[in-house]
Structure formats: structure tokens, C-alpha cells
Amino acid sequence: MSVLIWVLTELKMQKNPNSYPKPLSLHRKILLSMVALLLLLGLSTALITHAILLKVLKAEFKSKGLIQARSIAANSLVAVLTQNASHLKKLVENEKSLDPDIAYVFIVDSSDHILAHTFKAGFPVDLAKVNNLERGKAFNVQTLDTKMGLIFDIAVPVSSENKLFGQAHLGILKNSIQRTINVINLIFVGTTLLITIMAIFLAYKVSLLITKPISRLVEAVQSIQKGDFSTRIDVKAKDEIGLLSHAFNEMTSNLNMMVEEIKHLTTLQERERIALDLHDCCAQDLANIIKRLELCEKLFKIE
């Protein structure tokens, strides 16, 4: 969780450059890039999954409703032929009570007269005029926008030996599909969030693993700039960074040897310069003084 808070703080700092004047380090750049990629991947996966689930659930609900409607039509054939309204009433009410996703069930005869329905406040007249099944068609599905929400109205024929005696209509609530999708989305979002947090933690560790040796290299270069050629980098990795560290250590060793050699040569040159100065200047002056002293001594003897 602390890593996630740190990432959010970094994003906030990027929006306000004045509050964070220092440039982003390589470690932060790698971590933020990984986090952005993970969030983009999670969002795109959620959207794609939502679209696929919606399509699949619609097909499943329609298939389930079609099976139930055909079952109602088959069980109501004798009652439709005999105009047994009480049996049909009991049939549709029992079918509706078995499935909470069913909004209504009603049966009409070949003359479009309502034989039975599940509406307690009376059958809506406009409903009988929609989704009329054409002759020879096995079924028909139409989406209706009602006060209860969107409903899939499924119409199947009540027939025997290609003779149409009526129609059975079954209404499936689309809201139940949305509720199912919302539950699945909630589970999916929670799982995605957990995986994202774990991935951010792993990205933090991986970025450290990559940038820590580079930080050591930077510190070593800064030490060389200050004149410390004894700096060494202890990197045991056998990747490109390990090879770079090994090459850097060899370079610093060579530089240290060259510096020592330059110091030795400088000392020898200084000694030679001093010797030449003594020979060319001091020795000549000393000889001149000795000659003058000898002359003074002779002059003193002869007064």
C-alpha cells in the first residue's frame, strides 16, 4: 500500500512541477511506466470483459427464456384447445413463480384473445399488439422498454402438426443481466486491483534491481571526478550491468596506475630540474665566489 501511495504522490508531483523541481530518476521513470501500463491493461481488460459478458449473458438469457417459453407452449396446448382458462392461469403463474427473472407470461389464442396472464393490475392492452409471431416462424424475440426496465419478449407458437392454435409470450427482465454483470465486474475489479497492487510492488523491486547498480556507477563516477581513483563497484550480476561494472573497475585500476606513474615521472622531472638549476646557477655562483675569495686572500697577503 505504501508503494501505491508513493506512486500517487509522484503523479501529483508531475502535475505541479514547481513542487518537485528535481528531475525524475530512472527508478521512478521505470516504476511509473510500469504502473501506467498495468492500469491501462486492467482498464482495457475490464472493458473487453464487460462487453463479452454482456453479449454472452444476453444470449444465455434469451436461450433460457426460449426454452421456458417452448415448455409453456407445449404444456398449454390441450388447455388452449379446450379453452381451459383456469388451467392456463395456474400454468403461467406457476412458471412465473419459479424464476424471478420472468417479468410476465401470457397466452393468446389464434384470434389474439388473451387466455391467461400474470399481470395482477390487469393486462396492458398495448402489449398484445407487439411482437406478433408470423406464421411458420419458430419464435421471435423483441426488446421492450417498459416501466420495469428493458424486457426481452419471447413469442413461441402453440401449435400441433403445423396448425397454429395460439401464442405463448414470456418476458425476461434485462435488469437481472445487468445485476449479474455488476456482481461479476465487482469481483473482477477487486481481483484486478489486488493484482495491480502486487504488480506495482514487483515493479518497484524490479526497478530497484535495475537502477541500484546504475546508481552505484553514478556514485563511482562522481568519486573519480573528485580525484578518488581507488573506487570499486561490487556487482555480482552476470548481465550487461555486471560487464559494465567489471569494465569500470578495470578502467579505474588503469587510471590509478597511470596517475601513480605520472606522479613518479613528475618527481623525477622535478629532481632533474633542481639538479640543472643547481648546476647552471648555484654551482657557477659558488665557483665565482671561491675565485673571489682566493683573490682576496692573495691581496691580503701582499697588503
Q: What does this protein structure show overall?
A:
- With 303 residues, the chain is α+β, with helices and mostly antiparallel strands.
- Helix content is 65%, strand content 14%.
- The chain contains 6 helices and 5 strands; from the N terminus they run H-H-H-H-E-E-E-E-E-H-H.
- It has helices at 2-15, 26-75, 77-82, 85-98, 175-225, 240-301; strands at residues 102-109, 114-117, 140-146, 149-160, 163-173.
- It has a 5-stranded antiparallel sheet with strand order 2-1-5-4-3.
- A hairpin with a 2-residue loop joins strand 4 (149-160) and strand 5 (163-173).
- Helix 2 (26-75) runs antiparallel to helix 5 and helix 5 (175-225) runs parallel beside helix 6 (240-301).
- The longest helix has 62 residues, at 240-301.
- It is rod-shaped and about 175 Å long.
How many runs of DSSP E, i.e. beta strands?
Answer: 5
Count of DSSP-assigned helices: 6
The major β-sheet equals: 5 strands, antiparallel
Which shape, going by the Cα principal axes? rod-shaped
Helix fraction bin: 55-70%
Strand content: 5-15%
- Radius of gyration over C-alpha positions, nearest whole angstrom: 48 Å
Sheet with the most strands: spatial strand order: 2-1-5-4-3
Labels describing this entry:
five-stranded antiparallel β-sheet; disordered N terminus; alpha+beta; 303 residues
Topology of this structure?
Layout: H1 2-15, H2 26-75, H3 77-82, H4 85-98, E1 102-109, E2 114-117, E3 140-146, E4 149-160, E5 163-173, H5 175-225, H6 240-301
Antiparallel strand pairs: 1-2, 1-5, 3-4, 4-5
